[in-house]
């Protein structure tokens, strides 16, 4: 087993270094503030994380004297036995992975640990949160708030958003909510749709443009965007809808067509009612290094909210917005850390 310590200005930064160096299967053993200043002064922004990863077992080459086979018919049988033992060890290791670290939680925090896990917070994240918190719910919420980065929509109120994400996540509905919100602030919105195949989506966008009295352009390719964006830039925020089944290709086209940078903020939407692994799988399919922020939809359909914390840390992206229901334009919110921390610990 390989064990190594990592230091970052925050837990999120240290975690990113762990993921880059040891990979996603690394086990977090502990975290603590470290003495980084002169004369042993503790810098609260410096966090030391100890992580471990099992070295991959190499195939074993066995040379054995025929007289020493000890009941085995041949070398292949010995190798088969070794492989079986290795598989059993791997199974036991995966079974114990979430259990052994939890033994570090004291009796005074077991209730908070069970609460976090019940809400869907990753087991190892829950352990680290409780190591940093006192044995009270308010203290736990305070630690969670420090890990959440909220960007809001201020950076996009001038340039706008392009919304990306898997099918059914609610991109078109979210665009409608954001468009109404910006229109209420007297922002002259421009609508663009790259989803020219779905009749329902096109009809929805046309009705939206009538409601808020703004132009709508329906195009087929990313290559059509520059002439529109650069002509309309400066007149007001641009909101771009995209088809869910092509978000990876769209990001690749944006990188190629806008080599100096895309002028509109790229927001990746995730369904809050999905579990962490399903949402993370969608995230990993795209060119995530190009994404500026994330947003969560369908909070009203989620039974637990731990994935909001998990994904905020795992994506390392600030949160722009959350959609709290289906109603347009009301069910959209620029969340505060207090609001999200309350959801994550169970709606408190």
Task: Walk me through what this model shows.
About 5% of the residues have low confidence. Helix 3 runs antiparallel to helix 4, helix 11 runs parallel beside helix 12 and helix 12 crosses helix 13. The protein starts with a strand and ends with a helix. The longest helix has 22 residues. The protein has 2 domains: 134 residues, no CATH class; 189 residues, Rossmann fold, CATH 3.40.50. The chain contains 13 helices and 11 strands. 32% of the residues are buried. An 8-stranded mixed sheet has the order 6-5-7-4-8-9-10-11, with helices on both faces. The protein is globular. Helix content is 41%, strand content 18%. The protein is an alpha/beta fold and 348 residues long.
Throw out a few tags for this protein.
13 helices, 348 residues, 8-stranded mixed sheet, Rossmann fold, 2 domains, 11 strands, 3-stranded antiparallel sheet
**First-to-last CA distance:** 40 Å
Give the CATH superfamily of the largest domain: P-loop containing nucleotide triphosphate hydrolases
CATH architectural group of the largest domain: 3-Layer(aba) Sandwich
What structural class results from the helix and strand content?
alpha/beta
Tell me roughly what share of residues is in helical segments: 40-55%
Order of helices and strands: EHEEHHHHHEHEHEHEHEHEHEEH
How many β-strand runs?
Answer: 11
Query: Quick one: biggest sheet?
Result: 8 strands, mixed
Strand order of the largest sheet: 6-5-7-4-8-9-10-11
Enter the CATH topology name of the largest domain: Rossmann fold
